[in-house]
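Give me the fold.
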Amino acid sequence: MAEVTVIRRHLGTFDYTSGSGKASRQFNFVVDVAATVPIALRNTTHTSGHCSVDSRP
């Protein structure tokens, strides 16, 4: 797991009902990470344009 080094900005939150029926709240942030290995998205939910990885230094 990459270490978060800086929280740049809060993008917002939204409430939804999870697949198990529980009320959930998602918080979204722009962060910098100290990646020592390549970052890979493993959940297909996050590959549909809702998650973005910026590799700029």
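The chain has one domain: 3-47.
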